[in-house]
Predict the 3D structure of the following.
Amino acid sequence: MFESLQERLGSILNGLTGRGALSEADVSAALREVRRALIEADVALEVVRSFVEKVREKAVGAAVVKSIKPGQMVVKIVHDELVSMLGDEGKAIDLNAPAPVVIMMVGLQGSGKTTTTGKIAKRLTERQGKKVLMASLDTRRPAAQEQLRQLGEQVKVATLPIIAGQSPVDIARRAVQAGKLGGHDVVILDTAGRTHIDEPLMVEMADIRKVSSPHEILLVADALTGQDAVNLARNFDERVGITGLVLTRMDGDGRGGAALSMRAVTGKPVKLIGVGEKMDALEEFHPKRIADRILGMGDIVSLVEKAAENIDAEKAAAMARKMQSGKFDLNDLADQLRQMQSMGGMGGIMGMMPGMGKMKDQMASAGLDDKMFGRQLAIISSMTKAERANPDILKHSRKKRIAAGSGTDAAEINKLLKMHRQMADMMKAMGGKGKGGGMMRGLMGGMAQKMGLGGMMGGGPMGGMPDLSKMNPKQLEQLKKQAEAAGLGGGMPKGLPGLGGGGLPGLPGGPRLPGLGGGGFPGLPKKK
C-alpha cells in the first residue's frame, strides 16, 4: 500500500542523513520534496500543509542544528510527526459496556462492510472468546442478508434469522432484543450502503442508531478511494458520529493517502485494517509500526506476532529434533514454504525486517516472489512419497514426469533441488554443532543465495532471519517485549537505523537474535 511513498521518502531522507551538517535551505528543499511525495500519495492537501509546517518548526530549531547527526534528527522528527498524524497509540474495539455491546457498521456500498462484519465477528469469537450475533440490515441489495448468513456459517458465528418485509429499524430493534435474550456479548449490525452519500441514507443511519444505542460506530472505507474518502469520513461523522475507522484493501497497490488523511481530518482512530480476502485477513492498526514501515525501518514486533500466530509449536519442535539428527527432506522444505506463505510470503517477511525493504527490486529480478513458492510446492506435490523422502533418486525420467504434473520444467526442478541441497547441508552442519539451527533462517538463507545476497543472510554479517521457528510461545512473547523495549516497531529505533553495533540480548533458554551488526539490529545500543 505505501510502497511508492516509502521509496520517495526513503530517497529524500537518505540524502539528509548522508550529510555532516544541514542548513535551513537544505531542510526547506527536503520538505518541498516531502510535500510533493505526500500529495502524490493522495494525502489530503490540508493534512499535507499541517504535516510539513509541524516538521519545519521542529527541524529548523536549535536542537537539530546542535545535534551530532542533524540528518538523522530530521528523520526522527518526520517519523514522530507521521506517528502523530496516524494517531499516537493504536486503539482496539471498545467492549467495555453492558452486554450486549452493539457495534454498528456504516459505509458506502462496495466498501466491504459485510465481509468486514464477518471478519470482526470471527476475531472477537476466536481471540476474545465472545459470543457474537450478526444481523444484516441491508434490505435493498439483493441477497445481502443471505450473504451475511453464509458468512456466519463459514466463521461459525450466529446470525439473526431473516424475516421478509421488515424495515432496517425493526431488524435493528429485533437484533438487540435477540442479543439480550440469547446471552450474547456482542451484536454487530451490518447496515445498508449506497453508491454515494444521500439524505435518505443518513436519516436511516440516524434512526438505526436511535433504536440500537450502539457503543461503537465503525466507518468501513476502501483504502483505494483516495481523497474522496476524507469527505466520506467527515460526512458520516457529522451526521451519525463515528467512533472509529476500518480500512479495507490495505493489501492493494493504492498510494495510501486515505489511511494517512482520514484519521488526521476526523480525529477518529483507525481501529482495524483489512489486508486480504480471507476471513482472518484483519489486523489491528498500530500507528508507530505503520510509520516504521513507511520509513523503511521494518516491523519486528509484527513479525514476531505473526510467527506466534502461525507457527505450530509442536510441529516446530518435532522438525527441530529431526534437523538435529541431520535430516532435512523435501517434506520439511514444503512445510517451511507453507509456513512462510502463512506469514505473508517472502515480500511480507522481508518488508518487516529493518533495512530489507529496499531489496524488493533485487528479489523481483531474481525471480523471488510468492508465485515461486506456489511453483515449488506444486513440484514437491507432484513427487511420490519415496521421491520426497529421498531426492537423490530423481533422474531424468522422473523429473520429466514431475515437470508435466506440476506445469513447470526440468530447470525449475533442478533449482529447487539445488536450494534443498544447500539448506540440507546448512541444517546438517548446524545440527552437528548441537545448535539446533534455524529452519526458517535456513530457507531465507538458501533463497538469498539466488539473489547474490548470501553474505547478508544465512551466515553473513547480518546473521540471517531471526530463528522464530524454533521459539516456543513464551520465548516469542519475550522477544516481542524486547523488540518493543528497543523501539523496533514500537517507536523510533534508538540511534536510528545505521551500521552501528549493539543488539538485543540473547533470550534465556533460547537462541540469540542473529547479529545485524553484532547480535541484534543496526543502530541499537547494547543493553547494560
Remarks:
- The first strand starts at residue 101 and ends at 106.
- The mean pLDDT is 75.
- The CA atoms of residues 202 and 467 lie 52 Å apart.
